[in-house]
Specification:
By secondary structure, this protein is an alpha+beta fold. It is about 30% helix and about 25% strand.
Length: about 200
């Protein structure tokens, strides 16, 4: 999770006398609103969708920034994990070699060992518990291991000789290093992309 915090500012002397508590609270709320609107827009532009968030004003979960006190604190936490998972799933769909379409339609997402979604074109995620520790992308076709490089041999698909899961895991690891630990592994004999939130 990424957190943006807007907290009280210090005013001294005559400025303190001129800017009473109500004025300072309003200035803080207005500044926070401007910062958070800009941050939300930049996040949405970067990820391609609105980022789920939670806002806390003076210790109370609320989107009402006007509740802040003059010496208060506004914090917004952004949950980037859904965007990471959606991007990995979209890459799996887009970069799957296609002959019959079975492999492309075989990708699944598990959360802590429980299946939660089929990865298809335009797929979406169900609501995610904040307590989940591990997400796993797997293919359900028996020949998925053959598509990945094995031994000193390339993968057996001419469309993806470098593999699919290995390549996407490496790309995701580099792109999302600040958000999650991402690895390529085998679960049994099946290739898998494992995603563990950094704050898990």
């Amino acid at each position: 999770m990424i957190t943006a915090i807007i907290q009280r500012f210090d005013v001294e002397g005559e400025l303190q006398a001129l800017a009473g508590p109500d004025v300072r609270a309003q200035i803080l709320a207005d500044a926070a609103r401007d910062i958070l609107v800009q941050t939300d827009a930049e996040n949405a532009a970067a990820i391609g969708t609105a980022i789920p968030h939670r806002t806390v004003v003076d210790g109370v979960p609320t989107e009402d920034l006007e509740r802040v006190h003059a010496e208060g604190l506004i914090a917004r936490t952004y949950d980037l994990m859904p965007a990471v998972l959606l991007q990995i799933g979209n890459w799996l769909w887009q970069h799957s070699p296609v002959r019959s379409g079975r492999y492309q339609h075989s990708h699944r997402l598990e959360a802590d060992g429980e299946g939660i979604a089929a990865v298809t074109e335009g797929w979406s995620l169900p609501g995610l518990s904040p307590n989940l520790k591990e997400f796993t992308f797997l293919s359900t076709v028996h020949y998925a291991p053959l598509i990945e490089p094995h031994g000193d041999e390339p993968g057996e698909s001419r469309q993806a000789p470098d593999g699919v899961y290995q390549v996407i895991a490496l790309l995701a690891k580099e792109m999302f290093a600040g958000i999650a630990t991402i690895t390529f592994e085998y679960r049994g004999i099946e290739p898998a992309i494992i995603v563990r939130p950094n704050d898990a």
